[in-house]
Each structure stands twice: as structure tokens, then as C-alpha cells.
Amino acid sequence: MDLPYKPPYDWESMSRFLAARAGRGVEIVDSHRYARTCEIDGTAGHARVTALPDRFDVALHFADQGAVPKIVARLRRLLDLDADPAMISSHLGKDAALHPLVSARPGLRLPGAWDGFELAVRAILGQQVSVAAATQLAGRLIAAFGQPYDAVWCVEGLTHLFPSAARLRNADIASIGMPKSRAASISALAAAALEDPTLFDDAQGVARLRSIPGIGEWTVQYIAMRALHDGDAFPAGDVALQRALANGEDRPNARQLETRAENWRPWRAYAAIHLWRGEAQ
């Protein structure tokens, strides 16, 4: 099965972003493929996406063929295959700070998420720690609470499904070596997701996450960026974004960055990805 897109497509940047955050046992990312386990309507399987010069090739191993359209839709969102890169680049390239970044990577896409709950859990794991530390915690969480996955013809390294809300609601999450306050936030998130299965369907649902202790504006905006694929979401409190736009010793605060980003609407999330990518050089 082929998944087309409007060129250009910066797979090198997308794969680097996803690989740095890949959940051990659930995802595998390298220079030419993305593979992961998945569960749709109670049926487990896995998908493998191979990057080709002008499209992506998809191989699905899933017993319920009726779930194929849902899986394809999730993959298109995850890889941002429906974006119009020329339109986005034309708009963001008008900004002096973004112009060299956009010119260097006109095919940069907004990394999406396979599942809103999974992304929200990972966002909490990533609070106040490095990407590497958050990814390590995610691997521990998967190993401790994820459902084992063993299928014929499975991609080597795919061993678990990401822990469901039901598995995490009453789990001893702090036992994986994270602060009890953040573990409590994940437990509360799981309870909220079980109470409202539509929590990650729209912006209003994600906004309700602010009522959970430990989930602030940065986390909500990050979830909106990736889980809702909101192209205008913007985590202005992100230190890396502030650092990327620092003028000498003067680094903008969140409010100043919000003002600075007004001209980037409605593509502020793409601006953030460009700035993050520039910082990672």
C-alpha cells in the first residue's frame, strides 16, 4: 500500500524526531522506516512504513481488515502527509528569523501522534527532563505496564503494546523511577481518559486537561500540536524556543514569544518545529 504526499518531504528530520522519542518495544525508527505495534477496537497488530523517494510504502499485519482505514488515517496524521509544504514555507519564510530555517528545510513536517492518550502520557514523562531521559522513562513504563505483543512475522524489537488507560489508572507508576507527583498526574490522566473516551478528539477536550494537577500550558500546547495536529498550537513557555530566538543575552519570555509568534499564525506549530530543528543542529 502506498501513501502519497505533496513534495518536498524531509524524512531525515521526521525520522530523527521520532527516533529520539521512540518507545522501546512499541516503536522502531531508523533512516528508512517507522514500525510500531497498535491496537484498534481491541485487536492488536503492527504496521511498518518504509520511506521511498516519492512516497511511503505501508505493510500492515492486522487481523481485522475493517480497521485498515483507521490505521492509514493515523499514519497520515503521524507523518503529516496531508500538509501543503509550499504554502506553509511561503508564509513562515517571510519572517527574518525563520527564513533561513525554512529555506534549508522546506519539506519539514509536523510530527503527529499515533494516539492522544499515549502522547499525553509521554508529554508528562517529558516534563522538566531531557528528551533522552523522557524516552528512557517511556521504555520503563512500557516494559512494566504494557501488554506483551508476540505475533507471527513481527518486526524484531516490537514486543509490547503501549499501556492503556485501564492498565495505568491504578498502577504504581512511580515504581519506574519518576517523581510521585508526575506519576499521580499520569494516573489522573488515565482516569480522565476512561471517564471521557472523546477527551482527545478536539481542542475543548484537550483544554480540560488543564484541570489535572501537573498538566500546565506547555503540556496542553504540546499535546495539541501532536495529538490534535493543530498547526497553530504553540508552547510559548518552551525554553528551547525562547533560546532559539534569543538576541545575544536577551532571551524572550513566554509572553514576549507569544507576541513574536503572532505573525506566524496559522502555522505556529510548524514554526516551533523549525526552531527546534535549528536548535538541534
Brief write-up:
The chain is of the alpha+beta class and 281 residues long. The protein is built from 13 helices and 7 strands.
Percent range for β-strand residues: 5-15%
CATH topology tier name: Endonuclease III, domain 1
Per DSSP E runs of 2 or more residues, the count of β-strands stands at: 7
CATH classification, class level: Mainly Alpha
CATH H level, superfamily name = Hypothetical protein, domain 2
> Which structural category do the helix and sheet elements fall into?
alpha+beta
Inertia-based shape: globular
Strand order of the largest sheet: 1-5-4-3-2
Tell me the number of structural domains: 1
* Helix-strand pattern: EHEEEEHHHHHEEHHHHHHH
Count the helices. How many? 13
Describe what you observe in this structure.
This protein has 281 residues and is an alpha+beta fold. Helix content is 43%, strand content 12%. The chain has a single domain, classed as Hypothetical protein, domain 2 (Endonuclease III, domain 1, Orthogonal Bundle), CATH 1.10.340. It has a five-stranded antiparallel sheet, with helices on one face. Strands 6-7 form a two-stranded antiparallel ribbon. α5 packs antiparallel against α8 and α5 runs antiparallel to α10. It is globular, with a radius of gyration of 19 Å. The model has no long low-confidence stretch (mean pLDDT 94).
Q: Topology of this structure?
A:
Layout: E1 2-3, H1 11-21, E2 27-29, E3 33-40, E4 43-51, E5 56-62, H2 68-78, H3 85-92, H4 99-104, H5 116-125, H6 131-145, E6 147-148, E7 160-161, H7 165-168, H8 180-195, H9 203-207, H10 217-226, H11 239-244, H12 254-260, H13 268-279
Antiparallel strand pairs: 1-5, 2-3, 3-4, 4-5, 6-7
Helix pairs in contact: 5-8, 5-10
